[in-house]
Amino acid sequence: MTSFPLSRRALLTGAAGLGAAALAGCDRTAAMLGEGGVLRAADTHPDGYPTVEAVRSIAARLKEQTDGRLNVRLYTGGQLGEEKDTLELAIFGGLDFNRVNLAPLNSIAPETLVPALPFLFRDESHMRAAMDGTPGHTILEALRPHGLIGLCFYDSGARSFYTSSREITKPADLKGLKIRVQNSDLYVAMIEALGGDATPMAYGEVYQGLMQGVVDGAENNWPSYESSRHFEAAGTYSLTRHVMAPEVLLVSGRSWAKLSEDDRTLIRQSAKESVPLMRTLWDQRTNDAKTRLAEAGVTVIEPDFRAFSEKVQPVWDKFLATPHLRKLAEDMVAISG
Ligand code: GTR
């Protein structure tokens, strides 16, 4: 299956039309799935990236199981806009599937803040166990009232800092540095707690932002650091591993409403089956990224992460604002993995 260019404007126009129709009390959702059962899926990452290939595997399975009736087209590499925009499209029914990070959902469903808390997960297997278990299920379900059906979580490894100027070996090294973060108050608070200056910026703007010195650094996992080529502008990677929030695959609640029970079951099952595949691809891609980055001459630093984790308590205090969120965090921490 190939990726198809499609104008974001066309989708927005469609979604706006849907909004107007809904306001007028008309149900035009049937028209929004596209002709011939075509479902649209968006991902900010390019072809070959593990999240994209996992969704591609779902697409293949849906096509095969329905003799081509459910046909998913992938729009990769941010063709339909940044994650904030594609989420909006999905909520308003202009897009069917959307793979995003949890960060852009932080302002929509507070439950998504919990796995993004700095230093919450001990390691990757702890993250996988928590997201596969009851806490993960709670978070997927929390998206439903916001017009999004959460299907599954995908790995995103651990995020670490990279800079164009100074090496980050301790929190004090972040002082005075402008660090790009995702559009989430939690990430802003985290950088501030660590002593840096947070600059929220869309993913697609970071390469240029680093090149032009608008920001001094950013933070991400090995595969994103490599595939985005951010290393060309910021060649020092400091393995702080401060956030291990996973990715999530969503279906628009409006699209979901017009699927049959059988199709929903098939979609859920296919998504579930894509998770082990994604994890295998993820592990391979992480190793490949490490090799390519070493070849490209990136300097890798192993700082004492405890110096960083000791600073983030204010972030936990601020964002675990209700007993419900505190319980969710406790349940996640308590999971053995
Ligand atoms: C990546 C993630 C993307 C996006 C990006 C970012 O690791 O897979 O979905 O969130 O980070 O930093 O914006």
UniProtKB/TrEMBL annotation:
The keyword Signal applies. Signal peptide: none annotated. It comes from the Bacteria. Keywords: Signal. PROSITE patterns: TAT (PS51318). Pfam families: DctP (PF03480). This is TRAP transporter substrate-binding protein. The lineage of its organism: Bacteria, Pseudomonadati, Pseudomonadota, Alphaproteobacteria, Sphingomonadales.
